[in-house]
């Protein structure tokens, strides 16, 4: 505080300072002795009341059942009506929800969750470990056909050892378990013995969450009201009203005419329209997809690490973001979400540096011939670049890469290539003759997910990008699958990030932004506009 006033009274010259110095000393003594006090800024009191109107794509709301629902606006309602054992925050770290704590055995095979006491379903019945066990056994039951059944094939046994303790036994150390125990818990007393496809519960859901189901109207609106008995305290909003739309045009029109208060996945044009309107607050945040140029590491040109690094410096990624996305994107450094716990904050984008690119190419033995084309051992630098035909703006991105590499002295033959074709034909067929593949990579919340779902089964992890072989990366991935402590796993994946960025098996280009907007009356909405989009944070929204 004293330093603050010293700054205000800073003199313009020595004479003024002599006059002010006694004042400063007196002021400091008053502050230190407590005679003069300054009141801290009053804490903002969040008012209760108001309605949030939600919209979603996919048509009218589907059933609302946490074991089955995976689409329409109903999916957004699940975290409002139900709670999960644990939840992921915006950094994608697990944090307590129904489980207030958990222990993991030294061998990594037994997880013990300690549930909160006194958490009640909306009908007043307490939620216990039996409800959690029941939910996950239904999810993993073949007859249920839950969208999340395959998430838990490593689990050997679900056991409620007492009313508030759940024990999970896995067949082998399974680092993914925590990030997958985010499915929402259903009430055993309402669903036991029922046909999950036809039960009336699907249109009259009941959970433990911050909002409780009130009504499904004749015009297919779902109305929720605040749960006054919620374990974290009642939400600030009184109610949520949700409806669905068939097309993005209808969705956008509903937002502009004030029928809904929040919208996601806007086009750039609609986003900029919302930006210009003082009634809205807009958000641009990285999507969980990164565009990348994946190299065929069996191709003779791309076996040399210096060549791959040269291309990373030779492609003008900031210009690409501006031209393709209108500036709405973030340069990528690898297959990890920016700001997430496995992402190495030390790794920075390579940056556009054609001079350095040419230097690396010369070190690799390439030089310009009389036709201004790079040449080595009598062979010109010409290769085929396949472009994922399902990649939005893929052809524009391909042309910009073509232009940048043309200036360096490379010549590219651009060919569209469908994702399904890649999956069907397999690696050998694709790799034959092609030098690189321009595509998009889905980034999972937990890097261990990529072991099981990199390129839809085409390869097994990002360390297998077009035959990428690095024994240290392989060993680290195996280690990351066995470890259970986040702090230990973080070191492993941040080292993997460092190695992949150095080896450049792919030039990771950029994360396109998701664009969204919300009525400015709603406050404390920042968290949901992040790559993980934790929608349960709606419980903290309020209207000023």
Write down the CATH class of the largest domain: Alpha Beta
The separation of the N and C termini measures 30 Å
Percentage of helical residues?
Answer: 25-40%
Low-pLDDT runs of 5+ residues are 1-27, 29-33, 452-464
Write down the domain tally. Answer: 3
Could you tell me the mean pLDDT?
Answer: 88
CATH topology (fold) name of the largest domain: D-Maltodextrin-Binding Protein, domain 2
Portion of residues in beta strands equals 15-25%
Overall spatial form: globular
Summing up helix and strand content along with how strands pair, one would put the structural category as alpha+beta
Query: Describe the biggest sheet?
Result: 8 strands, mixed
Could you characterize the architecture of this molecule?
By secondary structure, the chain is of the alpha+beta class. The protein has three domains: 2-33, no CATH class; 51-261 and 521-543, D-Maltodextrin-Binding Protein, domain 2 (3-Layer(aba) Sandwich), CATH 3.40.190; 290-511, Roll (Dipeptide-binding Protein, domain 3). Helices cover 31% and strands 23% of the residues. The protein has 16 helices and 23 strands. The protein has helices at 2-8, 14-33, 72-81, 129-140, 177-180, 188-191, 248-256, 268-276, 305-314, 317-325, 354-363, 394-408, 419-431, 449-452, 471-482, 486-503, and strands spanning 51-57, 86-88, 94-96, 99-104, 110-115, 155-162, 165-170, 211-216, 222-226, 239-245, 262-263, 280-286, 289-295, 329-331, 367-368, 374-376, 379-380, 382-388, 411-417, 434-442, 506-519, 522-523, 542-543. Strands 11, 12, 13, 14, 18, 19, 20 and 21 form an eight-stranded mixed beta sheet that branches. The chain is globular. The model is unreliable at 1-27, 29-33 and 452-464 (pLDDT under 50).
